[in-house]
Amino acid sequence: MYKLLLRPLLFWFDPEKVHHFTFSLIRFFSKIPGFSALFRSLYEVNDKRLEIEVFGLKFKNPVGLAAGFDKDAKLYQELSNFGFGFIEIGTLTPKPQEGNPKKRLFRLKADSAIINRMGFNNGGVQLAAERLKKNKNVLIGGNIGKNKLTPNENATSDYEICFDALYEVVDYFVVNVSSPNTPNLRELQDKEPLTQLLQTLQNKNLAKPKQKPILLKIAPDLTDEQLLDIIDIIKETKIAGVIATNTTISRENLQSGNKAETGGLSGKPLTKRATEVIRFLSEKSNKAFPIIGVGGIHTAEDAIEKLEAGASLVQLYTGFIYEGPALVKSINKKILQSKH
CA 148 to CA 182: how far, in whole Å? Predict the structure, then answer.
């Protein structure tokens, strides 16, 4: 129904407006008695065999919603009714920020892709933390970044502010230094600044009575040498794992007319590269840490490929927009079939 009726209608309109409209729609229907249960009956796959423990957390299934969809933690409870095992909110920054000027979100229909240059638009970490206090049993990841105007030499303090604000209300953290839409942010992926940033957060974490897993979200555009550096950094800082990958700045083999828009590309063109990065990290590290696989998952087979390449969990974003919530169910069913 989604791909035949709803998607063609939604795709007539501006993607960012559609995003807000869809949020309002989901919220509206979720308030009607019985609708949340209906969504769950349509999309949830409840089976003990789907449960998995990763970095000390128990996931009811391995399919999550990636950061960027529910940046401000406004709809995580309702979105969990579509069968996700976990929801990642953010990217959040210490101060609220508007993000980049609109128009900043573009569909590349011929490529089943999206280009975004949102620029960490969010209402600030404090507001999101307040909303998360109302959480009823949704496993939540908190994706954190720095404000656009914070210079890189002061970036660590931005990440610390977000860490402190979210510590009580999220289950794991994701350090985002790989978005292409905040000027110079990707420079923080270099070995020295990244080690320093992660070590500072890990020290903060170790001082807490209960540690929260810290993960690093990396770009798909890193070279093999840089990926080997990432493995070293994880070994040294002892953070919990990696999310591979964020959006790409590559524009190889695209068909769509608006492919020249600046920003991060997500969707089908990323499928192969994201899987390559997962496989490389898994093999070269000798499976030393868990990986969450994200990037171009549009079918159940795409998800299985990422799991077989070495991912413990997977996340959807663009695939969820193009394929609809039935994708979550089909992945979970495929995982069950592969367990026979």
Answer: 6
